[in-house]
Specification:
The complex is a heterodimer of chains A (about 1050) and B (about 475).
Chain A: H1 13-16, E1 35-36, H2 52-61, E2 66-72, H3 78-88, E3 92-99, E4 105-110, H4 113-128, H5 139-144, E5 149-153, H6 161-173, E6 179-183, H7 191-205, E7 209-211, H8 223-234, H9 238-241, H10 256-262, H11 267-279, H12 302-317, H13 324-340, H14 343-358, E8 363-366, H15 373-378, E9 407-411, H16 415-426, E10 431-439, H17 442-452, H18 457-465, H19 476-481, H20 489-501, E11 505-517, E12 528-530, E13 537-542, H21 543-548, E14 553-559, H22 560-574, H23 587-592, H24 598-605, H25 618-627, H26 632-641, H27 644-648, H28 652-659, H29 670-676, H30 686-695, H31 701-711, H32 718-734, H33 739-755, H34 759-778, H35 780-789, H36 798-807, E15 812-813, E16 825-827, E17 830-832, H37 843-856, H38 862-869, H39 873-881, H40 892-899, H41 929-940, H42 953-958, E18 978-989, E19 998-1003, E20 1008-1013, H43 1015-1020, H44 1022-1027, E21 1030-1040, E22 1043-1053, H45 1061-1064
Parallel strand pairs in A: 1-2, 2-3, 5-6, 6-7, 9-14, 10-13, 15-17, 20-22
Antiparallel strand pairs in A: 3-4, 4-5, 8-9, 10-11, 11-14, 12-13, 16-17, 18-19, 18-21, 19-20, 21-22
Chain B: H1 7-11, H2 20-24, H3 39-52, E1 59-63, E2 67-71, H4 76-79, H5 82-96, E3 102-104, H6 108-117, E4 122-124, H7 130-134, H8 146-154, H9 160-165, H10 171-175, H11 177-187, E5 204-213, H12 216-236, E6 239-250, E7 256-266, H13 269-282, E8 289-301, E9 308-309, E10 312-313, H14 316-336, E11 342-346, E12 356-360, E13 379-391, E14 398-403, E15 406-419, E16 435-442, E17 447-453, E18 459-465
Parallel strand pairs in B: 3-4
Antiparallel strand pairs in B: 1-2, 5-8, 6-7, 6-8, 9-10, 11-12, 13-14, 13-18, 14-15, 15-16, 16-17, 17-18
Helix pairs in contact in B: 6-11, 12-13, 13-14
The chains are: A alpha/beta (about 1050), B alpha+beta (about 475).
Chain lengths: ~1050, ~475
């Protein structure tokens, strides 16, 4: 989903890949054989102060024989540790520190796959019975699942008889020398005595002692961060934390010889660590993920079934015979799928899509494997492989044994039905949502660290507010901007520590749509916990972990535009607009006529795209008149080009210049021509970057994939992409390309790091762009109705959608109890607003009214409507506020006056005095037209009567204010002319990419004005800029083609002209 | 949330009920002064103002959180007419530094409405212009709750005048009966009373001598008698004195004031006298004292405890000890001076020198730590004294040490205990202050607490077990 296009702050180790020259990290083992077995990573939230990768790398660098990760009641960090350990070349001991009820802590390590499954089941048991984020386990539970687990019990603070009894009991459970007792030398002053006691206990109980350092961080420098985490966990400041803090910085991973020195008198305790590590030989590599067996019709293998369905689909798609190109692609893909045994995956997606279709839920696949001929024939996507050349190879390759990737978008309001279907079909045992690791980002890190360090709340606020929301740590300049002194020791600490904290996981949440499905029980693979939402279960691993483990995941996402399209097709069905076969329209029907869609493209070229998918934002709209899309592929480019990736990679201008014919389109070689021809020699898509690396830079597909992964994360791990950069540039030069061209290519590729759009996604989105634009062009009333009915979605509020429809000649009828349903509808070609626009009205009540009207016919009095429909007085009041009694000849004021005496409960006698609804009507004060309009805005968010600005026009004319509509006309408003414009503030934006520039959109009764305000101007008019809802501005006109902006140099609030507006207008931010 | 702001801030766009962060964003510079809202202090100040305002009328009440109600019926004559009274109030408030809005109106409701919603800072509404005065005001001026005012606004009734136009009978069914009541109260058709403040004067007694006297015995005796009277009064009020002022009114000089303060409220005349006596002995009597005044200026409630019940002593003995301890502290403090009597209390810190703090003895409030974490020596030196140490291994047992010029052999050594510095109190560039501590027994059997800076490698003795 486009909303989620922020980069991950700390890339999963699997994303960093094994780049050139990073073989095995130079692992050499130390002289003393030691393995650290008690390691708490930061996946024990707010406790551990190092990432699993850091811990593993540190242990490897110190030459430990192995390292364990033992997070408390969790396996959330093990996949990262596993991947990092493989890279570093150190054996990883998968483990978990179980804290049982009563406080007993035991680290357990599975020796084999069945034992690991038991551990997962044990954790699942404890988590499912506890509230989210907790795990309730008893000793009894552990005993039941103890088979195959090695255990290290942490000694109680007092080694009394009760503890000895526990150890005896555990020894019987963990027989066959599987139990050990942990001993640590943590410089408490009493360590030697304590070690002696534990050793005595060990001898007495015949349970061997094992040395651990109870690690909380990889190196002692993390002590401050760990202290701060402790404070955050306890919700106290560092001054208040007292004894809750650790006394010293000893709980880091120590060199083996240092451990040997500390345990000089207990050599066996050191050698025991290696013994345990060797016995706990289970590796995550043993987890053999299996696709769910997709039930096929009897007698058919999955391969045959997939083939049959794909061919049948192809016949359906191409009634006039399957084109040669597609037939070839189909054969090729089917062979590849069969070879890699991915049939079940495609069949699963097919099944989900088929279910959605059967329920009339619109859906569309996108992403990696989706843009294949197979998926087109199965109906998963609408991107016709015959018309668009999209590479299947990139998404599924023989070299990378990695599951294919298909995201399926569903109507956002009905996605839950699909999820529940999956749960039902595979059972909660075998299907669950993937987790999303919620990590600290700039703001949250500053906030929590600042609080823990005891900064005053407003200083914390100021710091947090001044940071851009994603990532980015505080720089001294930003601190100075907040009026704080960056060299103040506490401030410095806060900044240093929050920079370290960024990327730390804070809790697990549920991924928006990723579902994992397995053949066997899922809880054999990974612990499952409850989600915050009822009826949902979530595994402990996130999607990178899933990727790393090669598990199947289907992303079921919600997309508002699909809801809107389905509604529009329904509305059209209702008024008799159907496909050529007489059925309800589908996206495919619309796409069939794409070739003859000149009118649609013309509209798009004029940036007349309010409500159209993706290309309705201000940035997109200012690009459209320059790009002037004429074909479907132009839309694909349009979707992809207005994104942070291409913008920051500097691809936009070269592309536009070439397109406008200002620059020549040249290719240094034919190989490069093949890759870049369709984008005029400028790489715009992620896959082009990869292909370029392969054909020009001599990369293997594997390396190209590593490049892609590092593109997603170079900010954090800059060195990885730099390494690829060298290789790429060297490779290209070696292949005879010029140094300059090579460097330019690499710079562009780096731009994708921010966010590059894969072509396959862009193509799927472009379909929705075209379909929505087609509706807007040919059926504006139905389109506007469907858009409003699908709110909240998109950039625009109902007021702008209605206004836009009016400008396209659609007649708009007000909400009316006698005519409207809950939703907006199309009535004789006009748009009839639905009762859903009446603020505060319950859907059920609106439907009761509509039903009552259907049975009874139109009502002439409120009271009769009330009695027949039985809705609450509160709902009537909402409707009256929305001025929905027009057909009874009652305006808002009079309707409310009549409703006022009605009571849902019987009235107390004395209040009955004069409840008759007519009384006093004639003596009510007169409400001005302005106030009526403003009331409309506050109760329904829009007014069909007039624009508030129209009441001020005479006043504004006197001040020489230009109507916003005139800005479009170059004759009246040539570039560089200074004009004054006034309007309602529709939006304020300050994108982080725009270096302090604020964008404000104003609206008056004639149109829209787009303001650009530089930072210093904004600072000067801070108050007006931030608060006023009605604004007057002076500025210089900027024109670029049909795009008009106003460089504002002066802002002024006009709120005083319509005093009510500040309280009653739309929700401005 | 913003509760209130100054005019300058209001001009910048700050409003009540605005989140602080949003208000901050209105200012380019961070030089905004922000005070925390303290509703109880506001209420106390308003109460004091109400007491002060009794100079204008005997019937004064605090009204909500931001107003004072004065019943000036019949008071105007004293001031020479309502106009003058109004002016006097305005002037007096201004001198106090308040920008008050002052109204005199025939009804409480009308005065409330006009003062809060009227256009003038001060005005007078005559009995026959109540309707006129109210008509242009918004309906909120009728002291109806916000929901009712909103509902009225919805049907276009914005002003009181709109409401007066409508038939009375149509209102209760639509807007509830409170609206009519409020309307009537404002118009004087319903009765409303105010509950005036009645401040309690401090317990004080005064006695005049027949003539100036410089006989100390006589003065002492009088003071003791007056103390008895004052404590008697305090007992009736279930209070104890926290501060007692004794004023000696001298014939030719200004009054001499002797003040004693107490750590806990007391009504024990004997105890008070003991505290007072040394001060009285030193007092300068001048040419003679004409009168003595004793006043328990600050008093606090005392909880009564049943000392004994049916022969079974309750917690009386503990309470008794606490009481006498308190009296001892009072005595010490009144003799030695404020801030000279301290008590040590524990603090949760691993650093030995920060593990306790000295507080004023009367400060019995929040003790953060209850226990010591580890074994600590009974004597901790203010300044650790340097020592030379021979250890066998880097952090291994101490072998020999030289301290205060004497060399000792170590016969036992426990440790190390490693204590990290409190990094958050140090500058980020400062080196790490981690130390190792050892408990070392010398050959005389004495245990020393030996420390070593891990970075510096310097040894010191930080304390001994005595």
């Amino acid at each position: 989903m486009p909303e989620n296009d922020f980069q991950k702050l700390r890339p999963h180790p699997v994303k960093l890949g094994t780049g050139p020259g990073s073989a095995n990290g130079g692992f050499t083992s130390s002289l003393v054989a030691y393995a650290e077995l008690s390691v708490t990573s930061n996946f024990t939230f707010l406790t551990g102060a190092s990432h699993p990768e850091e811990l593993v790398e540190r242990a490897a660098a110190l030459g430990h024989r192995a390292v364990a990760i033992t997070d408390t009641n969790s396996l959330a960090g093990v996949v990262r540790a596993h991947v990092a350990a493989k890279t570093a070349g150190i054996p990883l001991v998968v483990g978990c520190r179980l804290v049982l009820e009563g406080g007993l802590a035991i680290c357990v390590y599975p020796i084999d796959r069945p034992a690991y499954s038991r551990l997962c089941r044990l954790l699942t048991l404890g988590k499912r019975r506890a509230p989210k984020g907790e795990c309730h386990l008893t000793l009894h539970d552990l005993i039941e699942h103890a088979k195959g687990l090695l255990a290290v019990v942490e000694p109680a603070s007092v080694l009394d008889d009760a503890f000895i009894k526990v150890v005896h009991g555990l020894r019987d459970v963990f027989d066959d020398d599987r139990l050990s007792i942990a001993a640590s030398f943590l410089y408490t002053g009493d360590d030697e005595n304590r070690l002696r006691q534990i050793a005595a206990l060990a001898t007495h109980t015949r349970v061997p002692m094992v040395a651990t350092n109870r690690v909380l961080y990889h190196e002692p420098g993390r002590r401050p961060l760990q202290d701060v985490l402790t404070c955050i966990r306890h919700g106290c400041t560092i001054e208040q934390a007292g004894y809750r803090l650790e006394a010293n910085a000893e709980r880091h991973i120590k060199p083996a010889d240092e451990m040997a020195r500390l345990f000089a008198a207990y050599r066996d305790a050191i050698s025991r660590t290696v013994e345990i590590a060797e016995r706990a030989a289970f590796s995550l590599d043993e987890l053999r993920y299996e696709y769910p067996a997709e039930p096929c019709p009897t007698g058919l293998s999955p391969t045959a079934y997939l083939e049959r369905e794909a061919r049948a689909g192809a016949a359906r798609r191409y009634p006039n015979g399957v084109p040669e190109k597609t037939r070839g692609a189909l054969e090729h893909e089917l062979a590849l799928i069969a070879e890699l045994k991915y049939e079940a995956y495609f069949l699963t997606c097919y099944d989900i899509v088929r279910f959605a279709r059967s329920r009339g839920i619109l859906c569309q696949g996108r992403g990696g494997a989706a843009n294949s001929a197979v998926c087109y024939c199965l109906g998963i996507t609408e991107v016709d492989p015959n018309k668009h050349s999209l590479l299947f190879e990139r998404f599924i390759s023989r070299e990378r044994n990695e599951p294919p990737d298909i995201d399926i978008d569903f109507e956002h309001e009905r996605r839950e039905e699909v999820l529940q279907y999956v749960y039902e079909k595979y059972g909660r045992e075998r299907a669950a949502m993937t987790a999303e690791v919620i990590s600290y980002r700039g703001r949250s890190a500053i906030r929590d660290v600042g609080k823990a360090m005891g900064l005053p709340e407003d200083a914390v606020d100021a710091l947090a507010k001044n940071l851009s929301p994603w990532g980015e740590a505080a720089t001294p300049d930003r601190v100075r901007e907040c009026g704080l002194n960056p060299s103040d020791p506490t401030i410095r600490r806060v900044i240093e520590l929050s920079a370290e904290l960024i990327g730390f996981p804070r809790h697990l949440s549920q991924h928006v749509g990723g579902m994992v499905i397995t053949r066997g029980p899922l809880c054999d693979l990974v612990p499952i916990e409850n989600a915050a939402m009822d009826n949902r279960t979530v595994i402990e691993w996130d999607k990178d972990d899933i990727d790393a483990m090669g598990m199947l995941k289907v992303d079921c996402l919600g997309l508002g535009m699909l809801t809107c399209l389905r509604r529009a097709f329904e509305l059209l069905d209702g008024i008799g607009v159907r496909s050529t076969t007489g059925k309800r329209l589908t996206i495919a029907d619309v796409m069939e006529q794409e070739a003859t869609g000149d009118a649609v493209y013309e509209m798009i070229g004029h940036a007349d795209t309010i409500g159209v998918f993706q290309i309705e934002s201000r940035a997109q709209m200012s690009m459209l008149p320059r790009l002037i899309p004429r074909t479907f592929y132009d839309l694909v480019i349009e979707v992809a080009i207005v994104r942070p990736g291409p913008i920051q990679g500097g691809m936009v201008h070269p592309y536009l210049r070439r397109r406008e014919g200002k620059d020549p389109v040249e290719f240094p070689s034919d190989a490069v021509r093949d890759v870049l021809e369709r984008t005029l020699g400028v790489p715009l898509f992620q896959e082009q970057a990869m292909q370029l690396a392969i054909v020009a830079g001599g990369f293997t597909p594997d390396q190209a994939d590593g490049l892609r992964r590092s593109m997603a994360s170079w900010k954090r791990k800059g060195n990885a992409i730099a390494r690829y950069g060298e290789q790429l540039i060297d490779g290209m030069v070696a292949n005879g390309y010029e140094q300059e061209f090579a460097e330019q290519c690499f710079d562009q590729i780096k731009g994708f790091s921010e966010y590059g759009f894969p072509e396959s996604h862009a193509a799927s989105f472009a379909i929705l762009v075209y379909a929505s634009a087609w509706l807007k062009r040919h059926h504006p009333a139905a389109f506007a109705a469907a858009l409003i009915n699908s709110q909240p979605m998109g950039f625009y509020k109902p007021a702008q959608i209605v206004r836009d429809a009016q400008e396209h000649g659609v007649e708009v009828q007000p909400i009316d109890v006698n005519r409207s349903g809950w939703e907006c509808s199309v009535e004789d070609g006009a748009l009839r607003l639905g009762m859903r626009l009446a603020k505060g009205l319950a859907q059920a009540d609106a439907e009761r009214i509509a039903d009552a009207v259907g049975i009874h016919g139109r009502f002439s009095t409120i009271e009769s409507l009330w009695r027949v429909s039985g809705v609450s007085v509160k709902s009537l009041r909402c409707l009256a506020r929305a001025d929905a009694f027009g057909s009874m000849d009652l305006d808002r004021q009079r309707a409310l006056w009549q409703i006022k005496p009605l009571r849902d409960e019987p009235m107390p006698l004395f209040e009955r005095a004069d409840a008759s609804s007519e009384a006093g009507l004639d003596r009510l004060p007169v409400i001005s037209a302005v106030d009526r309009v403003l009331h409309d805005y506050s109760s329904a968010g829009l007014s069909l009567k007039a624009h508030p600005l129209s009441f001020l026009r005479a006043q504004l004319d006197e001040r020489g204010v230009t109507p916003a509509g005139d800005l479009r006309l170059e004759r009246l408003c040539p570039a560089k002319r200074r004009v004054t414009v006034a309007g309602l503030v529709l939006s304020r934006q300050r994108p982080s990419t725009a270096s302090g520039v604020t964008f404000i959109t104003l609206e008056d009764e004639t149109g829209i004005a787009n303001l650009i305000i530089w930072r210093d101007t904004f600072e000067r008019y801070r108050r007006v800029g931030r608060l006023s809802t009605l604004m007057l501005t002076r500025g210089t006109i900027e024109r670029e083609g049909a795009v008009v902006h106003l460089h504002a140099s002066h802002l002024e609030s006009l709120d005083y002209c319509l005093p009510r507006i500040a309280s009653s207008s739309r929700d401005f931010h | 949330m913003i509760t209130a702001c100054c005019q300058q801030a209001a001009q910048a766009g700050v409003r009540a009920d605005m989140p602080l962060a949003q208000a901050r964003a209105l200012f380019a510079t961070p030089s905004v002064r922000i005070e925390t809202h303290d509703p109880s202090a506001d209420a106390a100040a308003l109460y004091r103002l109400a007491v002060w305002a009794q100079r204008f009328s005997p019937v004064v009440a605090a009204d909500g959180t931001d107003g004072l109600l004065l019943d000036v019926t019949g008071c105007a004559r004293v001031w020479g007419g309502e106009e003058r009274l109004l002016r006097a109030v305005v002037d007096a408030m201004q001198r106090l530094g308040f920008a008050a809005r002052v109204m005199i109106a025939p009804t409480l409701g009308c005065a409330w409405a006009v003062s809060r919603f009227g256009s003038k800072r001060a005005c007078l509404v005559s009995p026959d212009s109540v309707r006129e005065a109210l008509a242009p005001l918004p309906t909120a001026a009728l002291r109806v709750d916000g929901a009712v005012a909103t509902q009225l606004g919805e049907v276009g009734i914005e002003r009181v005048g709109d409401l007066l136009e409508l038939p009375r009978s149509t209102l209760p069914a639509r807007f509830g009966s409170e609206l009519l009541l409020r309307l009537d109260q404002a118009l004087g058709q319903a009765i409303e009373t105010i509950e005036p403040v009645r401040p309690v004067p401090p317990a004080a007694v005064e006695r005049m001598f027949d003539g100036p006297t410089d006989r100390v015995e006589a003065i002492e005796l009088t003071v003791r008698e007056l103390l008895d009277e004052v404590t008697g009064e305090l007992e009736r009020r279930s209070c104890g004195a926290r501060r007692v002022d004794v004023e000696l009114l001298r014939s030719d000089l200004g009054p001499e004031r002797l003040t004693i303060t107490l750590g806990r409220p007391s009504q024990n005349a004997k105890h008070l006298w003991q505290l007072l006596r040394p001060k009285l002995e030193r007092a300068h009597l001048g040419f003679g004292v004409e009168a003595v005044r004793v006043c328990a200026c600050v008093a606090a409630k005392i909880r009564h405890e049943q000392a004994e019940c049916d022969g079974v002593a309750g917690d009386a003995s503990a309470a008794e000890i606490e009481r006498s301890c308190g009296e001892l502290l009072d005595t010490l403090r009144n003799r030695l001076g404020e801030g000279r009597v301290l008590r040590a209390s524990l603090r949760e810190s691993r650093l030995p020198e920060r593990a306790f703090e000295m507080r004023d003895a009367s400060d019995t409030g929040s003790v953060t730590a209850g226990v010591l974490m580890s074994d600590r020596p009974s004597v901790l030196f203010d300044r650790p004294s340097p020592s030379e140490v021979i250890a066998l291994t880097p952090d291994g047992p101490v072998h020999r040490l030289t301290w205060r010029g004497e060399e000792h052999g170590a016969t036992a050594c426990v440790g190390p205990e490693r204590i990290g510095g409190e990094w958050w109190r140090a500058h980020p560039t400062q080196p790490d202050r981690t130390r190792d501590y050892f408990a070392v027994r010398d050959e005389r059997g004495r245990w020393l607490w030996l420390g070593r800076g891990v970075e510096s490698g310097r040894w010191f003795v930080h304390g001994v077990w005595a």
